[in-house]
Design brief:
The chain is α+β, with helices and mostly antiparallel strands. It has nine helices and 16 strands. Strand 15 and strand 16 form a beta hairpin.
């Protein structure tokens, strides 16, 4: 899915155990890639995106599970999280079909906005089908599938008896157990801009949390963006409600949850909602969330919810 991954097992493994672990990891990643990748034309998701409107598409239980989680977070966030952003992603030149990046014409944004709504998807979980209401509706699961893959890899390694594991798939991280030295797994929130800026700390991260049976995902505007002809920064984080990249002060949001898939999607939803609306929603839902805001002078401000503060180790 265009992402790198790292898996750390905090145990001494002989070669047979190492091979079993590697096979389990690769099998889970291959499954998610085969089902949910927009980077391959033969994936289940790509076939659904080409399917006709009004026709029930039979999908795997894994894809249905991800779509059900996505639908729940779409409702919770009022549509700030929406997997039907595929046409918007392409219009802005991001994703697997990346092209020369430029601001689309208003008429193009209006056209793809008409195709962007989680309500255009009818999910039948018992029958394992999903139906699109309009021709041209296209899903992109890149804001939830990497976290889902991390959950599956941890579970697969647990089935082999590995109880001390950290999995990082495209920056979506899940950890169980302890590090080799017996200390908790410590995961940091990256400094926006990978250490650049007037406040950049030597450690290049802002805060760290201890994870055991928990996942942390971060959504930010600083890794994938372009600058338009007027000098405005256009992020790959798109607001499905407007069709435009987010334009508020948030640089990143990190969320900690037991499920990496949920953390992945919730971080995206809060990033779209922005510092005020997203902050209020995170507080009401008692989410463990950490917000990094840009100030006009180029420095940063951070905010955290009490559940996130409770997990911090620095």
């Amino acid at each position: 899915m265009g992402a790198r991954y790292v898996v750390t097992i905090a145990e001494e493994l002989d070669e047979p155990a190492r091979q079993r672990a590697r096979q389990a990891i690769e099998a889970e990643l291959a499954l998610v890639d085969r089902l949910m990748s927009t980077w391959r034309d033969d994936s289940e998701l790509s076939r659904f995106n080409r399917s006709e409107a009004g026709v029930a598409f039979g999908a795997s239980p894994e894809t249905i599970d991800v779509l059900a989680t996505a639908a729940r977070i779409s409702e919770w966030s009022g549509g700030a999280f929406d997997v039907t952003v595929g046409p918007l992603v392409r219009a802005w030149g991001f994703g697997a079909d990346a092209r020369v990046r430029a601001v689309p014409r208003d008429v193009e944004i209006a056209s793809v906005r008409a195709l962007t709504s989680y309500r255009h998807l009818a999910l039948d979980v018992p029958r394992r089908t999903v139906t699109k209401a309009r021709a041209g509706v296209s899903c992109d699961l890149s804001s939830i599938a990497p976290g889902y893959a991390a959950d599956r890899v941890v579970a697969a390694l647990g089935a082999l008896g590995h109880r001390h594991v950290l999995v990082d798939i495209g920056g979506e991280i899940k950890a169980v157990g302890r590090r080799p030295d017996g200390a908790p797994w410590r995961v940091g929130v990256a400094w926006p801009g990978a250490g650049d800026g007037p406040q950049a700390p030597a450690s290049a991260h802002l805060a760290a949390v201890a994870l055991d049976g928990l996942a942390m995902a971060t959504s930010g505007d600083y890794r994938d963006f372009f600058v338009d002809t007027l000098g405005r920064r256009r992020s790959h984080v798109l607001d499905p409600r407007t069709g435009w990249p987010v334009a508020h002060a948030l640089a990143s949001v990190s969320v900690v949850r037991p499920s990496a898939a949920e953390a992945d999607a919730l971080a995206t939803a809060l990033m779209v909602l922005g510092p005020e609306e997203g902050g209020h929603l995170a507080e009401r839902a008692q989410l463990a969330a950490y917000f990094v805001l840009r100030r006009q002078d180029g420095t940063f401000e951070t905010r955290q919810t009490p559940p996130f503060a409770a997990l911090r180790v620095e």
